[in-house]
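Q: Got a minute? One more chain.
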Amino acid sequence: MSALKDQLRDDLNTALKARDALRTSVIRMVLAAITKAEVAGKEARELADDEVLSVLTSEAKKRREAATAFEEGNRPELAAKERAEAEILAEYLPTALTDEEVSAIITDAIAKTGAATEGMKAMGKVMGIVTAATKGRADGSAVAAEVKRQLGAEPSRSCAPSLGRSPSPQP
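A: Always. Here it is, folded:
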């Protein structure tokens, strides 16, 4: 059994004894998501710590996205609840990388792969190295945008022009 899952179970007992309803609810939700991941597929299996960390990361991302959606929907009380849940989940995640650290990792990966001269064609190679180095500690979309920036592409541009195709004319 993974150490992280054991810690979650111990923290659940502590939260139950302390009658901390929010923490109890969040930890139960995470343990349910972990159990769901364990039984997904053809046969049940125990998740390793890195897989449990992936589940925690996805749950935290869900909370951040839900908080944003509630803010946009003018529901500040629900957004605050989602943020509080995300803060509890953040206690179990590794410390997030700063933008400067992510940028340095990307610069190093570009140097290692020699991708500076290849441009966007080398994005897959660079992302393979960077994703492994930042797993669980940086948002993937932000990392991809920074890789595109450093490789010289506009992150918000469509892929169609770079493939040599022109957009079809509208009738």
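A: The first helix runs from residue 3 to 18.
Q: Perfect, thanks.
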